[in-house]
Each structure stands twice: as structure tokens, then as C-alpha cells.
Write a structure and sequence with these properties.
The chain has 11 helices and 22 strands. With about 400 residues, it is of the alpha/beta class. The chain binds flavin-adenine dinucleotide.
Length: about 400
Amino acid sequence: MRALVLGGGSGGTIVANSLGAAFETTVVSPTSEHLFQPGLLYAAFKGDERRLVRDERRLLKRGVNFLQDAARRVDLLAKQVDTAGGQRLAYDQLVVATGVGADYSQIPGLPEVAAEVGNYHSTVDSARRLWRTLNAFAGGTIALGQATPICKCPPSPLEGILLTDELLRARGIRDKCRLVFFTPYPRAYPAEPMSRIVEPILKERGIEVFTFFDLDRIDPGTRTLTSIEGDVIECDLPIVVPAFVGADIVYEPAETLDASSFVVTDPRTLRIKGVESAFAIGDGTSLSTSKSGVGAHLEAKVVAKTLNGTPAVFGGRTHCPFDVGGGRATFVAGTYDTPVVPSPPTRLKHLMKMAFARVYWASLRGLLDPVLDVYFRLTDPARATRSGSRELS
Ligand SMILES: Cc1cc2nc3c(=O)[nH]c(=O)nc-3n(C[C@H](O)[C@H](O)[C@H](O)COP(=O)(O)OP(=O)(O)OC[C@H]3O[C@@H](n4cnc5c(N)ncnc54)[C@H](O)[C@@H]3O)c2cc1C
């Protein structure tokens, strides 16, 4: 049985490594560089570039084929994929894990700002540029926020402003700087229970929050940010998390993609809507859960289980680590059926977030599965709700 996996990121690598010997598995991805994207945060705000990239071929278990190429057209009816390199690949089962990419074009002025300032949601080069920009900054207003409501790793905009605060304090210039966090949501964090935790932290650090700020355009000359409603933030340094869209792939039938080029996916079975022999996982899906590596991981395991012969369903579990600066972190955990449960930031959770960066590569090969299974069971938000504590410790 031929299994074709499109995308050699977190989700694609895990699903390929989890399929049984009954499959002849091939991963198709345009680059052999596997980027540990959470590391971009630390490259941009701490200048730490360790553990960022590994060769995808070495992350795949023996027997899984790797084809360096990009899918261009997926015909779900004929069960074949055409690639940029001119190949036509037939499959019995398909898993789409092509992630999302930054789309600067949605906000006039953002392409220029991103090129000059850098960001921490695209490439190592861009994160490096942001680190240099922040270190050259001598004082003034920094405005950081997300351009659109859908964001890869929902805590990452707040992590960015909190780590900016930490960096400016370390450089001894915090008193010369005004920090503004803008968001299209009605509160600092989209989920109210987490906002209740983070808002006092922002206040204590002197970070202003502009809510309901739907970014419309940026004037790269004056560095003025204007919202759709006409509100204005004037700043010296805009750091903008861009809009994200799905991979540039044409699907047959065309209704497979929604307006943002996300693959329309059944939230429970993870099958591409209406198709028996194709699944989608990770950031590139239309799922209403957070776009996170943890989500991609859990979804990959559900699909692998189903393909290996034990039909499984996804419960919408998220578990996003959230670095609040000052050596403390928390997790944003929820499911389709259990809303996000508040979880106070601690040093231990920060240590866990940092430890995961070291073991990420082993997790792709399934080496941590027994530990992670227990961990996700113990931290299941439904447990906290059932036990009446209404809080994850
Ligand atoms: C700053 C930052 C911090 C983050 N922090 C965390 C965190 O702490 N915890 C967490 O869980 N998540 C975090 N994330 C999110 C996490 O990195 C992503 O959610 C995760 O990588 C998604 O996995 P994926 O497999 O869906 O997509 P990706 O890992 O992005 O992989 C997509 C793959 O598809 C390939 N591809 C693209 N186009 C094609 C094509 N046409 N044909 C074939 N292949 C294609 C790409 O090259 C890539 O290999 C963070 C992200 C950022 C940017």
C-alpha cells in the first residue's frame, strides 16, 4: 500500500514515522531542512540559534522515502499528485501536512517593514534580522502584534512583546522605550481564562494593550499602523506577525480549499472533507484548534492509528507552551469540548518548554511516545474541569 505524505514538517514527519510496515511511505517536501519553528522566538529575542535546523532525511525512520520536491496539483479523485519537478505520484492513502506560510501581501506596507525589521514567523534569516534590529534599537515606541486573527502558535505574539520587554531591560534601556501590544481580539489573549492570567503581567511590565486593532495598512516611511476602523498607532519599530495562508497547491475538487487555502478537514476523523483515502493534519487544515506543533503531533498520531487499522478520532486537544518572560511559562490547554483551562505561569513549566526544544527531534521519531501519552493524559483539561479545580497546575 502506497502512503504519500505531503510536507516534511512536524506533522508530516511524525505521521510518516508512525505508519506500519504495511505501507511503502514517501514524504514529499520542497526542502530537506527541517526547521524547529518554536526556536525562531529565541533566535529573534535572545540571539539563540541552537537546535534550529536538521536534515529531514535523518529524521525519517529507515524505510521511509524522501523526495525533495513540491506538490503543485493534488487530484483527490484520480489519487495522484503532480509535483513542481514534473513527477506524477500515485497513492493509495494521502496525508497532507503542508503547513502555512506568511502572506505579507495582505497588509500594504508590511512587505517593506518585514524586509527591513525582520520577524519571527518565517525564516531563520528573518529572525536573525529582528535580533539585530532589536539590539540596534536605542529608544522609542515598539508596537508588536498580529496582522490577522489566525496566527501560527497563538501565544507567540504575546511571547514576542514579553521577551522584547525582557531584552530591553537586560540592555538597560527599558525606561527609554514604550511598548505597545496590538491585537484584533477584544482582550490580550483570545481565550478569556488565559487573558485573565496574562493581563496583570502586561500591566506590571508597563506594556500597553490596544484591543480590536484590525491592522489595515502600515506606512513604512512614518511607521504608522492604521486599523480598518481608522485607529492609529505611531511607533518607531513595528514588529508584525503576518497573515498566514495554506500552501500553493491546486486541488481537484477545488472545494477542498477554503478562502485562506486551508484544506477543509473533518474535525474528528481528520479526513479531507468527503474523501475516504486522504487526510490533512497540522497548520494547513481548516480545523478550529490552535495552529501548533503539539496539535500537528496529536493529529499525526490519530491519522497513523487509523491507517494502521484502528480507527481513531481527534478530540481537538491543544497544549501550547507560553513563555511569559522572566524564566516563567504556562500552557494553553483545551479541547473541542473543554474550553481553555487557566494555568498559572511557573518556573517548572518554563523548564519543560526549554526541555522540549532538546527532545523535539526524538519526539518526531516516536521515541517519547510513552512519556507523552502519560503527560497528555495527566494534563487533560477535562480532568481539571472534572476534579472541580478548574485550573491546570
Ligand atoms: C515563533 C513560533 C513559535 C512556535 N512555538 C510553538 C510552541 O511552543 N509549541 C507548539 O506546539 N508549536 C509552536 N509553533 C507552531 C509550530 O511550529 C507549527 O504549528 C508546526 O510546525 C506545524 O506543523 P505542520 O506539520 O502543520 O507544518 P510545518 O511544520 O510548517 O511543515 C510544513 C511542511 O510542508 C512543506 N511544504 C510546503 N509546501 C509544500 C508543497 N507544496 N509540497 C510539499 N510540501 C510542502 C514545508 O516545506 C514544510 O516542510 C511555533 C511557531 C512559531 C513560528
